[in-house]
Amino acid sequence: MQDNEQYSNAILSSSRQPLTEAGQLLAKVLVVWAASYGVNEKGEEDPNNSDLDVDRRTTLVKAMVEELIGIIDMMGLLHRPSWDGVRVLLMTLPLAESKHGLSLSSVTLRLLMYTLTHLQMR
């Protein structure tokens, strides 16, 4: 393991570039994944795992995924191929499976997302 100071100096001295729109959306997808596992925006785990807490978390994640899908649509991410866009789509699809009861539960809409993601990877 490297020295903490050496690691910090390497990070601070590197050139920083702002994230692209797709990169920012990718960060949001990671937040949704964390929330689905019971981790809040501060990185703290929710100590309660009762049925009520799981239902509350499912409702929260559902709302977050629906917002992500709206942002993906608004950004036109499916029409502008990029690697970050592909990452966003591939990480969003499992969250939007029918077991969560989300807006992508329609087989046709899910198939369209899979197809468009595959086309972006070509």
Short summary:
The protein has 122 residues and is mostly helical. It has helices spanning 4-13, 21-36, 51-75, 83-92, 107-121. 62% of the residues lie in helices and 0% in strands.
Structural account:
By secondary structure, this protein is mainly α. The protein has one domain. The protein is built from five helices and no strands. Helix 2 packs antiparallel against helix 3 (51-75), helix 2 runs parallel beside helix 4 (83-92) and helix 4 (83-92) packs antiparallel against helix 5. It is flat, with a radius of gyration of 17 Å. The mean pLDDT is 76.
Mean pLDDT across every amino acid position: 76
Number of helices: 5
Radius of gyration: 17 Å
Strand content: under 5%
Low-confidence stretches: none
H/E order of the elements?
Answer: HHHHH
Tally of domains: 1
β-strand number: 0
Sketch the major β-sheet. none
Overall shape: it is: flat
- How many angstroms separate the termini? 38 Å
User: What helical percentage do the residues reach?
Assistant: 55-70%
Secondary-structure-based class equals mainly alpha
List the helices and strands and how they pair.
Blueprint: H1 4-13, H2 21-36, H3 51-75, H4 83-92, H5 107-121
Helix pairs in contact: 2-3, 2-4, 4-5
Features:
single chain, flat
